[in-house]
Every structure is written in structure tokens, then in C-alpha cells.
Specification:
alpha/beta; Four Helix Bundle (Hemerythrin (Met), subunit A); Rossmann fold; 3 domains; five-stranded mixed sheet; 11 strands; flat
């Protein structure tokens, strides 16, 4: 592979910027800029091709097999001015055999050199994008290899089951002293149950990554827009004493207790002859039905028309500053706001508790293929020795599906999509 280089930290002014060089020529290229490399790390003066100093940098050296990419790597920690960074990159570009890295190329090499599996690469992408504590925790769990470890355990059990079946095929003309079907069925059942449990948590995991949606619904003039502004801490929605002011769905993204949440302000739910308002009400109903949680803001005991509360939905009395019973809130004064936020957090945290280590639709698809193959294998084993060969092939299909989960097979068609989301320095 070519030796590649790029700025590995964010662009723009900073206290320190990191420039990474990876590949077989990394050490030679670094020595052209700063002389003899340290054994592991040390301060060196970086000089241009004219011999004049560019900067003093902390230089880190990583031998092959001990770096992020698995290759020989040198990292320059330079003072983070735009001029310094550009001068270093310019001089690296003049070294024969070096080229600038493409987006995600360092991470792609880590995958190809077995430093990361595909699920870990996806976890790294999510970690870079994480904005809330829940997103960070979820992404780091995947980056640490939790899904790969589970997949390896499932794979090991299925290889054992396939080996038992193939033994009966190899000795079909002889008396096999032990009936292997009970152990095979037990292995198939345990793996299938584990896969189904992981699949069940993918939807919640995607919500943690992309954000939960909470819709504020209710009749006109109940204080929905005022409540949204109070939650957001700014004037995100127009408020007035006139009913029907909100016509479109207004979205505000926020962090509630470490969870990413998009709060939706919707049009007041009522019967109307105004065609434009009717469109807004229909949009409100559509988005509210798809939301993860609805907060019904009552006005004089009315919830509005066209939508009924579902389990876990919150029913709140609006305009608490004017009086209200039970859970009441006022966006104007802030009364009851803390209690409402705590109730929303509790509902969403309870849902987030069911998340596993599989976090993407791709993971769910791979596990669904494995489950389907395991069901066929189970049926084959139960039908007797005559179906052992077909059942063994079904087990191999399940193993291939698990291999695609962590990137051993059938992943070329998704690699470009994954790595296109990475920046140049990653």
C-alpha cells in the first residue's frame, strides 16, 4: 500500500494539531523532516526542504503491529496554527512515495490489517459523531469489540453444531454410538434466542444514535409553543394569544439526561374549515403518531381531536400558572417544567435500557438471515438423519451471516458508504 498522510485532528486554529503518517515509508519520510526518530516519543525540530525550521513537535513513533492502522506510523503533534500545519503537510507531500489520505483511509487500513472489525469501525464512526452521553456509551461499547465478541461466541457454537452433524454424515454407514441431535438442537436454540434478543434492541439503539422524538400535542392555545421555547431555552417557536398560530411542525434538538431528543411543536388539534390550518393539523397527527413519546397538553380538560394517548404517553395540564391539577406545567413561568422533563427522561431511559450491542439496521439484517437459516437447520435436525446434510448447510449459511456482521465476508458493497462518512484524518 502507499504511504499516506493527513491532518488527524480538526482543521483550524488549535493549541495542538496532530498529523499522521502511515505506511512502509512512514519512518523514512519522518526522518527527512525531523532527523533521527525517537524510539517511541520525543521532541524534534521539523525542518522544510530548505533546512529552515518549521516548528518544534512532539513526535510519536509506532512500530508495525502496534499502531492504529497496524502499519508503521509516525504522528507529529505540532502547534496548531494554520500556517504550521500547512507547512508540514506541504513538505510531506514533496516526499517521494507519499500521498494524502482519502476520507476514512486510516480506519480502512485498520480493518484490512485486522486491528478493527467492521462493527468496531461503525462504532468508531458513531463515537466521532456522539453528542450526548448515551451516544458516547453506546458507541464506545461497540468500538471496544462487544458485538464482535458475541458474534465469535455464536460462531463457535454453530461450528460445533455443524461439526457434530457432519460427523453423522461421514459415518452414515456405521453405527454412531451417540445421538448428537439433542446437543445440536440445544446449540441452535441458544444462539437463535441470543440473536433474537439482540435484534429486539436495534430499534432502540438507532434511536439513541439518531435521537428520540417527543411530540407536544393538544388543542390550540394550550401553550405548546411556549412550552417548547421553555424546554429549548430560546424562542424557537412563535407564540401568540391567537389560536392556530403554529401551522407546521417545529423541531428542536436537545440533550435530556444524556439522551438525544428532538422535541416537536405541532399545530393545535381541532376541527377547522381553514385549508392551510387543516394541512398543519394533518402533519401534526402524522408526526405525533410516529413519535416515540407524546406529551398531551390539556386545556380545560380537553386533549384535542384526532389523537388518543398511548401507553407511556404523558398527559399534562397546560398553563399551570393559571391553575391545574395533577402533573401541570407552565412554559411561561417554568412551573412544573422540571417534573415534566424528569417524566420524559424516565420513559425514554426505560426504553433505552433494552439496548444491546447491535446498533444498526445492517446488524439486524445479518442476524435475521442467521435466524432464518437456524430455523431451517432446526427443522432439518428434527426430521432425522436423512436431512443432516441440508441442516449442516443451513448452519454454514448462519455462520456466513454472522461473518458478514463483523466484516469477514460480503462487505465490499458497504465499505465505501461507511468510510465516506469519515474525515480525511480518520
Amino acid at each position: 500500500m502507499d504511504t499516506i498522510y493527513a491532518l488527524a485532528s480538526a482543521r483550524g486554529k488549535a493549541g495542538v494539531s496532530v498529523i499522521r503518517v502511515s505506511g512502509v515509508c512512514a519512518f523514512d519520510a519522518a526522518e527527512k523532516l525531523c532527523g533521527r526518530l525517537p524510539a517511541s516519543r520525543g521532541v524534534r525540530t521539523i525542518r522544510g526542504e530548505d533546512g529552515l525550521p518549521i516548528d518544534e513537535a512532539l513526535v510519536l513513533r509506532f512500530d508495525e503491529g502496534h499502531s492504529f492502522t497496524g502499519e508503521e506510523v509516525v504522528e507529529f503533534q505540532v502547534h496548531g496554527s494554520i500556517a504550521v500545519v500547512q507547512a508540514v503537510l506541504s513538505n510531506l507531500g514533496k516526499v517521494p512515495g507519499l500521498r494524502e489520505a482519502e476520507p476514512g483511509e486510516f480506519t480502512r487500513r485498520a480493518l484490512l490489517n485486522n486491528r478493527l472489525d467492521l462493527a468496531q469501525v461503525e462504532g468508531l464512526a458513531d463515537l466521532i459523531e456522539a453528542e450526548t452521553e448515551a451516544q458516547r456509551v453506546q458507541a464506545f461499547r461497540v468500538l471496544s469489540g462487544a458485538l464482535g465478541e458475541k458474534a465469535e461466541g455464536w460462531r463457535r457454537d454453530l461450528i460445533r453444531a455443524a461439526a457434530l452433524l457432519e460427523a453423522t454424515i461421514d459415518f452414515a454407514d456405521e453405527d454412531v454410538p451417540v445421538d448428537v441431535s439433542p446437543e445440536v438442537l440445544d446449540l441452535i436454540g441458544s444462539v437463535a434466542n441470543a440473536l433474537e434478543a439482540e435484534r429486539a434492541g436495534v430499534g432502540v439503539a438507532e434511536r439513541i444514535r439518531d435521537g428520540f422524538e417527543v411530540a407536544i400535542v393538544g388543542p390550540p392555545n394550550a401553550g405548546k409553543s411556549t412550552l417548547l421555547n421553555a424546554l429549548a431555552g430560546r424562542d424557537a417557536a412563535i407564540t401568540s394569544e391567537y389560536a392556530g398560530t403554529t401551522r407546521d411542525v417545529i423541531e428542536v434538538r436537545m440533550d435530556l439526561g444524556g439522551l438525544p431528543v428532538t422535541v416537536l411543536d405541532t399545530a393545535g388539534l381541532r376541527e377547522t374549515a381553514d385549508q392551510v390550518e387543516e394541512i398543519g393539523i394533518q402533519r401534526a397527527l402524522d408526526r405525533a403518531r410516529l413519535a416515540d413519546l407524546r406529551v398531551f397538553l390539556m386545556l380545560d380538560g380537553e386533549l384535542g381531536v384526532g389523537l388518543d394517548p398511548q401507553p407511556d404517553d404523558l398527559v399534562v395540564s397546560g398553563k399551570a400558572d393559571l391553575g391545574g391539577e395533577g402533573l401541570a406545567v407552565s412554559g411561561k413561568t417554568g412551573e412544573g417544567l422540571g417534573a415534566l422533563v424528569q417524566n420524559i427522561q424516565t420513559v425514554l431511559e426505560n426504553r433505552a435500557a433494552g439496548v444491546g450491542t447491535a446498533i444498526r439496521a445492517r446488524h439486524a439484517t445479518a442476524m435475521a438471515k442467521a435466524c432464518a437459516a437456524l430455523e431451517n437447520a432446526r427443522i432439518g435436525v428434527e426430521q432425522g438423519p436423512d436431512r443432516s446434510e441440508l441442516a449442516a448447510e443451513d448452519l454454514r449459511s448462519a455462520i456466513r451471516a454472522l461473518d458478514s456482521l463483523v466484516g469477514r465476508v460480503d462487505v465490499e458493497n458497504i465499505l465505501d458508504e461507511i468510510f465516506s462518512s469519515f474525515c480525511l484524518g480518520k
